[in-house]
Amino acid sequence: MADVYLRRLSRWQAEQQREAVADVYVTAYRGAAGAEYRDRSGFLRRFARHVQREGFDMAVADATGLAGCAYGYRLDRDGAWWADYPVEVTPQAEELTASGRVFALTELMVLPALRRRGVATRLTDLLLSRLGKDLVVAGVDGDRPGTRELLRAWGWKELPAPTGRSSPSPGREVWARWPVR
Questions:
Q1: What does the pLDDT read at residue 179?
Q2: Neighbours of 158 (CB within 10 A)
Q3: Phi and psi at residue 154, in whole multiples of 5°?
Q4: pLDDT tens series, the chain, 181 aa
Q5: Three-state secondary structure along the chain?
Q6: Is residue 24 within 8 Å of 107, Cβ to Cβ?
Q7: Which of 36, 58, 61, 171 has the fewest CB atoms within 10 Å around its CB?
Q8: What b/e readout covers 68-82, taking b as 16+ CB neighbours within 10 angstroms?
Q9: Any residues with CB less than 8 A from the CB of 106 and at least 6 apart, and which?
Q10: Measured over all CA atoms, what is the biggest interatomic distance in the chain, rounded to whole angstroms?
Q11: With contact defined as beta carbons under 8 Å apart, do 104 and 75 qualify?
Q12: What is the C-alpha separation between 181 and 179, in angstroms, rounded?
């Protein structure tokens, strides 16, 4: 097996690598047969928006070509992001949001051939290494196999759903890595 090297990308480098990142996305999330074009084009539209967000940061894994990536950005201080998820926002989370100290881990993907070899953990550690005092959140599809177990293994906590309110996004969950004190 080839060695896997990790590195950060600047916003400009990320934009230059968008096609390779989309290739990894399609391979990592193999959807229904025939849906690759739709999945790829949808990803490229989202990626173009994400890369322009304030505080965008990205880490990639290379192993004879792009093999995985993790990226995210700072959430807007107005807290609008929280409205899309069925969670109870604590006063601490509101305070961190208002102070610009919440980072959304937006995407984490690794090619199937490199899974279960620590690549996702290393990518996440590199990406989040600058965020010791910040709240890091990830909106995830709770139905994706292994997602909850992986996040728990990394020490993340699922944010609780508010009592008496139905979910605007069924199946979506928010997990968080709380600031180091």
A1: 73
A2: 15
A3: -85, 0
A4: 468 899 999 999 999 999 999 999 998 887 655 556 568 888 999 999 999 998 999 999 998 888 999 999 999 998 888 887 778 888 888 899 898 899 999 999 999 888 888 899 999 999 999 887 888 998 887 666 678 888 888 888 988 877 655 544 556 788 888 875 5
A5: CCCCEEEEECHHHHHHCHHHHHHHHHHHCCCCCCCHHHHHHHHHHHHHHHHCCCCCEEEEEECCCEEEEEEEEECCCCCHHHHHCCCCCCHHHHHHHHCCCEEEEEEEEECHHHCCCCHHHHHHHHHHCCCCCCEEEEEEECCCCCHHHHHHHCCCEECCCCCCCCCCCCCEEEEEECCCC
A6: no
A7: 171
A8: bbbbbbbbeeeeebb
A9: 50, 71, 72, 73, 138
A10: 51
A11: yes
A12: 6
Q: What residues are paired with 102 via a beta bridge?
A: 135
Q: Is 174 exposed, middle or buried (0-12, 13-18, 19+ CB in 10 A)?
A: buried
Residues pairing with 140 in the sheet: 173
